[in-house]
Amino acid sequence: MQRLIGLTVAVSLLTACFDSNNVKDFVAAEKRLTDIIENTIQPSRIENQYRANIQLSASNLLELLPDINEYARSVDARDSSQVEAVEIFTSSEKGGSGVDGIYVDLANQYNSQRNRLPNGKIGQIAIRKIASGAAASFLLANQHVPDAYSPSNLLWGQMLASQGVDLTLIDKATAPNVAGVVVQKQKVDQISDNGQLNLQKLLTAVTSGEFAMGYTNPYQSSTGLNFLLTVLHAFAQGEERQMLDPDVASAFEAFQRGVPFVAQNTLQMREATVNSGVLDAFVMEYQTFINANGLGGYEFVPFGVRHDSPLYATAEASDDERLVLTQFAQFIKANAGIAKRYGFAANPSYQSSYELNDGAVILNAQRLWKDKKSGGRPIAAMFVADVSGSMDGDRIRALRVAMTEAANFISSRNSIGLVTFNDTVNVDLPVREFGLQQKSQFLGSVERMSAGGGTATNDAILVAAYDLLEFAKTHPDHKLTIFVLSDGETRNGLALSKVDKVIQMLQIPIHSIAYGFESSDLKAVSSLVEASYTESSTGSAAYQIGNLLNAQM
């Protein structure tokens, strides 16, 4: 997006008379919001009347998986007449860079040894960084199945095996780790006894609303999945066969009413919560905790099953490739000191608090979570879509596809509206229950979106918030949220620094997806009220939005 000096000046001039620093509570924020909407932004309200055909069947996230190259290889190795290359799908805390690069380091060291196999080829390891849940989705869909898979914990392997995915355990623990609740130091006694998590204390405090707890999406995050199963196991009093019973589901729904935020992943959780300090606690792996900045005021309390990074061979692995994997696992064992340098192997005495025998329980627990995650409250959401000039071409086409697919993840009991923006803002669709007529009009609006003009993102967010608050006056039982989809920084309208306190005091989460770049503006606005910020290419937009709605809607 071109950065025009004139537009930047316009933003400065337009925002000079606004200052939200003296907005101290919801009442003041709502009053300031009304003034801004009525006297400054003055959005148009040209409601879309075109109705598109709708798909009656629900979307499946497995059908929206992006091209595997959306997940880059951090170590590359290819088969040849001289090389036996083995590709491992590796979880994010092992396949990245810096402190998250242990598998990258180990693979490079192993590859440098150029170990020769009985077939005469040289064994080599390729690493592809991909979150455990996303990797499990590729395996379930039988789409680009790797030779090997190293999730954060054994739960994913158990779940995949229960669905008929052929996995062979090569090593149970390649990077020893544990999951935990990261809790403010002054609140640690509310959920623990002598450094040990007291689940009954935690469940009671969160359910009663006395303790604000956040966790991560159990469809994508190993820590979130572990936490979900830990909670259900506790409600079932340790009886695996009762974890999905109606009374457990009811107790979990009550627990969810006290959970203000479910992030897509641990990084989003940390970034959205540490700066604001609103949450009393959130979930994280110990290796991430010990390497993170800004957590000096928190303590780590382990929970659930261990996160020891098992290594599996898939059905794609030949005998020679399995031999390479076995050699790689042995190399890891022989160089155990490397794990400590990366923050692993720090809690050897911690034992898993539960074990599951039936992997099908895990998949069904995810489904229970999706059904009960809103705590029994319907959701009212406003989509805020960028139709500025920079969205023209592939981006606007990808946005249409993504939002069309996204509509199929939204329950008809929820209420949805749509705002589009460039340098001006229009309410294309007021917030209404997402029945067939509203869904048809929503899809019609999406089909007819066209790109042009500037980018007044914050204006559009404020309009969305205003309309949601008006809706809430007659629907007080609804949980309010905003989804922003944009490819550019704010160039028109109100600057975030002038309205951030207004947005923060309204307490409406603003989940954002940035197309093709890192947006400091969107990241900042999502951090105001514990919401998720996601970066996406056009190719992965449908999957990313589907994941987001799966977690929030």
TrEMBL record:
Gene3D superfamilies: von Willebrand factor, type A domain. InterPro entries: CLCR (IPR051266), VWF_A (IPR002035), vWFA_dom_sf (IPR036465). CDD domains: vWFA. This is von Willebrand factor type A. Residues 380-553 form the VWFA domain. Pfam families: VWA.
